[in-house]
Design a protein that fits this description.
CATH topology: Rossmann fold
Strand content: 25-35%
Order of helices and strands: EEEEEHEHEHEHEEEEHHEHEH
Distance between the termini: 17 Å
Length: 272
């Protein structure tokens, strides 16, 4: 049964995180296509449910929200794997060459690594912003037989709408004569190929092929993506729940711990 809820605002390197968890940093691929990753696992557990965490645009795997999610998951004896997409963090490629389709290919590589190399009992996905678009599309391609459950945080399918109308989050451009790149306020450049492919992305069409368990979390004060986009995802999935977090921003600033707890609680319930 679907639930609609409202939440009140409120190279390997090994390092010990706590008495109950361990972290392992490693690389998938070589220097030409390397994805820099962090695997966080509960201590003294050989087989575990695994959640793959996909970050958003112009962030990386070590965003506070995502590390808090990883920490909460390990408290529930659930492992997590998070990797930097191409053009982000320490992974391969230039930011200007990043597109959603090539991030989706990165996401598939991460999934295949987890499936073939980790002692997981199931694989679930969580994505934030553009990473939520990736998680939804990957789940659609793989299906519920391969994905146990998904959580989409501040999902941003309006990337396609914005590319079509020529407005990339406040930066105006001619959608029919695309520029070589758009320069973001921090100096990063969005390339033409990103905009071109975004205009024709089958976001909903691909995502709705997944009909497994899903949780949608979106802030009512999201300044980048209206929460109505979260409701649209909720409507795609028959086995879905939604939490609209009152007064929460796109990145859930100040509420990272609450969102991490909601996410971990959901995955714990679905892993049982």
């Amino acid at each position: 049964m679907k639930k609609f809820l409202s939440v009140l605002s409120a190279c390997l390197i090994f390092t010990a995180l706590s008495a109950t968890a361990a972290s392992r940093d490693f690389i998938i691929g070589d220097e030409t296509n390397k994805l820099v990753c962090t695997l966080q696992t509960p201590k003294d557990i050989n087989d575990y449910p695994l959640v793959i965490i996909y970050h958003g645009l112009n962030i990386d795997k070590d965003m506070l929200l995502l590390t808090k999610i990883a920490d909460k998951l390990e408290e529930e004896n659930i492992a997590s794997l998070r990797c930097d997409f191409n053009g982000h963090g320490k992974s391969y490629g230039a930011f200007e060459n990043m597109t959603i389709p090539n991030e989706l290919e990165d996401a598939k590589r991460v999934y295949e690594y987890a499936q073939n190399n980790l002692k997981q009992t199931s694989i679930s996905l969580v994505g934030h912003s553009q990473g939520a678009v990736i998680a939804g599309m990957l789940a659609g391609e793989l299906g519920e037989n391969n994905i146990n459950s998904i959580v989409l945080l501040s999902a941003a399918p309006n990337i396609k709408d914005n590319a079509i109308k020529g407005d990339f989050f406040g930066i105006q451009f001619d959608a029919k004569n695309l520029p070589q790149y758009l320069e973001l306020p921090d100096g990063h450049k969005i390339g033409m190929e990103y905009l071109k492919t975004a205009q024709v992305l089958p976001i909903y069409e691909t995502s709705e092929k997944y009909q497994g368990e899903a949780l949608i979390v979106h802030g009512t004060h999201d300044e980048l993506v209206p929460y109505t986009y979260g409701i649209k995802y909720y409507e795609l999935y028959d086995k879905s729940e939604i939490n609209l977090v009152k007064k929460a921003s796109h990145n859930f600033v100040g509420q990272e711990g609450d969102i991490a707890q909601i996410t971990a609680d959901y995955f714990k319930k679905k892993a049982e």
